[in-house]
Design brief:
- Strands 7-6-5-8-9 form a five-stranded parallel beta sheet, covered by helices on one side. The chain has a four-stranded parallel beta sheet with strand order 2-1-3-4, with helices on both faces.
- The chain starts with 11 loop residues before the first helix and ends with a helix.
- The chain folds into two domains: 191 residues, Aspartate/ornithine carbamoyltransferase (Rossmann fold, 3-Layer(aba) Sandwich), CATH 3.40.50.1370; 148 residues, Aspartate/ornithine carbamoyltransferase (Rossmann fold, 3-Layer(aba) Sandwich).
- It is 38% helix and 12% strand.
- It is globular and about 55 Å long.
- It is built from 13 helices and nine strands.
- By secondary structure, the protein is of the alpha/beta class.
- N-carbamoyl-L-aspartate binds next to helix 5 and helix 9.
């Protein structure tokens, strides 16, 4: 970590112009912010995943749950969700509850002073007067970064966690996705060497954009981007993969790559970003998975989805052992708890408790 890199010491224009891979170093200060997938190292991910599993095990017993609830009882979090959310909002909220952190929320800007003409910047500054952390989702790409930069120029800098920004980043979803992959492949050599197949709206799906980057941290993985041409992954992501030396294949032939997949990451069409309803005319019938494909995929393959889904995964396979999207969703709660605890620097208390009491798996 380069400690000279402080958000308070750089102008917004200079910061904004930095490549993603250089921005990360600015978020590791005190307090740390979680804003983009590019700020994570493999070690950081390993530590967060290990902590998530420990929290989960400790929470199984009443005395453990009571201990966890004391850890952040002196803190409050603001959940500011200016875009729809079910899982991200609820899992963050549940993660806060597990750690005893009280929460407040604004889920709809029309209920805040923004309707009176207050800028989103001023709204966030207001939240920071009452809370010790802001967990935020916003339709404007880069807005969470702007808020963190702004915070660094106030006397009360509090950590910002990006819970989804525009169509570009969803770093905590990428963390829960990696956690799910690591747990799924625990007995078969981990994430290294695996073929990860992304399917659907890869042009506008922020979860894929963030996860693709995290996968560059693993050795010998191959990423397959399977989509109709107009929904294919952006050149900017492919450039990042090229620079990282990560192998990838861009194709529209889902059937051809299915048998080689270790993980199939399905996504929905993100038509809320359509300008003129253009995605309604795209034929997506070959970008779905159902019962008829279960015999084709590897025995060890897992099917994931950030959810919500539409028709891209048939409900017939919801209870199939390959389907891990329900577990993936729950993993979000544990990894977010680990991230929140680490953001406040309280992770050692969990590690100490775990070593003292060794809760059963
Ligand atoms: C995703 C999102 O908001 O980007 N949902 C989520 O956080 N689990 C995916 C989506 O909306 O399609």
């Amino acid at each position: 970590m380069d400690t000279d890199k402080k958000l308070s010491g750089i102008s917004w224009q200079d910061f904004k112009a930095l490549p993603l891979t250089e921005k990360g170093a600015y978020f590791d200060g005190t307090p740390p912010h979680t804003l983009i997938a590019q700020q994570f190292s493999r070690k950081k991910i390993r530590d967060l995943c290990a902590l998530a599993t420990r929290i989960k095990r400790i929470n199984k017993r009443r005395e453990g749950a009571n201990f966890l609830k004391t850890l952040l009882c002196d803190k409050r979090a603001m959940l500011y969700f200016a875009q729809p959310s079910s899982r991200t909002y609820l899992s963050f909220n549940a993660a806060c509850q597990i750690l005893g952190l009280d929460t407040m929320d604004v889920r709809d800007s029309s209920t805040s002073s923004e309707v009176k003409g207050e800028s989103p910047e001023d709204s966030v500054r207001t939240f920071s007067s009452y809370a010790d952390m802001i967990i935020m989702r916003h339709p404007k790409g880069g807005f969470a970064e702007r808020v963190a930069w702004m915070m660094a120029h106030t006397k009360r800098e509090i950590p910002i966690l990006n819970a989804g920004s525009g169509a570009d980043q969803h770093p905590t979803q990428a963390l829960l996705d990696i956690y799910t992959l690591k747990r799924s492949f625990e007995k078969i050599g981990g994430v290294d060497g695996k073929n990860i197949v992304f399917v659907g709206d890869l042009a506008r799906g922020r979860t894929v954009r963030s996860l693709a980057w995290l996968l560059t941290l693993y050795d010998d993985v191959t990423l397959y981007f399977v989509a109709p041409e107009s929904l294919q992954i952006g050149r900017d992501i492919l450039d990042l993969l090229d620079a990282a030396g990560t192998r990838y294949v861009v194709t529209d032939d889902f059937a051809a790559v299915m048998p080689d997949a270790d993980a199939i990451y399905m996504t929905r069409i993100q038509d809320e970003w359509d300008l003129r309803g253009e995605s309604s005319s795209i034929d997506t019938s070959s970008f779905r998975i159902g019962a008829e494909h279960m015999a084709v995929i590897k025995d060890s393959a897992v099917i994931m989805h950030p959810l919500p889904r539409r028709q891209e995964i048939s409900t017939e396979i919801d209870n199939d052992p390959h389907a891990v999207y329900w577990r993936q969703m729950r993993n979000g709660m544990w990894i977010r708890a680990a991230l929140i605890l680490t953001t406040f620097g309280r992770q050692d208390e969990v590690n100490q408790y775990y070593d003292d009491y060794k809760p059963e798996p």
